[in-house]
Design the sequence.
């Protein structure tokens, strides 16, 4: 992978919530530990290259959906990006790691973008099983319908296995959490950051081998953890968990905004 001296990789924390360990880890009783509260953050991610090209990775949740589901929210891309000097209307590429409601809200804020999503993810969420309660709980029907509209308009790029979005920005389909969950590896001057999105909500999933509670395929989820662990063992490679407040300890804050984490500056 090629490094780019000026590439920025940012995590924008747009929401948060307090939940419990028993709600977060699959069959938590297996571990014989007392339940406890655990903080969960909500992020979207921004890759900005030296030439100004911006690749969005997910778009957060829509405010109305967040309110209905009782999540705290602070911003949306349309408000957050201009503060970073980015015009959402000019963004050409949005990667959708998976179609859960907290990752594909606000897609309409990117009217010029091609949307990159795995074919497995698109096929699943536009198919009949996605309407069953255990899956439907994690999606917004209007947002899934928008994916179909975008597909008809020729604005979806449906990928399988691997895809290069930009030099040094690679998508890898891992499944597990959802049928076509993607991770994103991003070359930075110091090495590689891995935007795991919800292949890894909390670092503990990989570091203590504890699957997250919401999933499509448990063997697939374990295999995704194995891949992430192998990546993390490579030199100068850092995992960015999708919902872990520890991201803000493992990477430096952006000097201009404490809600933004600079993923090109790992702290350890
Ligand atoms: Zn999520």
Sequence:
């Amino acid at each position: 992978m090629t490094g780019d001296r000026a590439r920025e990789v940012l995590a924008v924390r747009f929401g948060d919530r307090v939940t419990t360990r028993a709600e977060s880890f699959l069959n938590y009783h297996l571990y014989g530990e007392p339940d406890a509260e655990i903080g969960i953050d909500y992020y979207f991610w921004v890759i900005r290259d030296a030439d100004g090209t911006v690749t969005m990775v997910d778009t957060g949740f829509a405010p109305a959906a967040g309110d209905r589901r009782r999540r705290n929210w602070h911003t949306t891309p349309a408000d957050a990006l201009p503060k970073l000097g980015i015009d959402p209307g000019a963004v050409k590429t949005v990667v959708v790691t998976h179609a859960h409601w907290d990752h594909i809200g606000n897609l309409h804020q990117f009217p010029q973008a091609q949307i990159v999503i795995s074919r497995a993810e698109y096929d699943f969420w536009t198919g009949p099983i996605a309407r069953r309660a255990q899956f439907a709980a994690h999606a917004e029907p209007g947002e899934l319908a928008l994916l179909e509209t975008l597909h008809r308009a020729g604005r979806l790029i449906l990928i399988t296995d691997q895809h290069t979005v930009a030099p040094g920005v690679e998508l890898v389909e891992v499944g597990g959490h959802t049928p076509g969950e993607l991770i994103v590896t991003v070359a930075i001057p110091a090495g590689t950051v891995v935007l795991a999105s919800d292949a890894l909500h909390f670092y503990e999933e990989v570091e203590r081998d504890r699957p997250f509670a919401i999933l499509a395929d448990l063997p697939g989820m374990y295999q995704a953890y194995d891949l992430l662990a192998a990546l993390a063992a490579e030199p100068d490679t850092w995992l960015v968990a999708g919902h872990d407040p520890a991201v803000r300890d493992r990477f430096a804050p952006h000097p201009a905004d404490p809600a933004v984490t600079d993923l090109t500056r790992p702290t350890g």
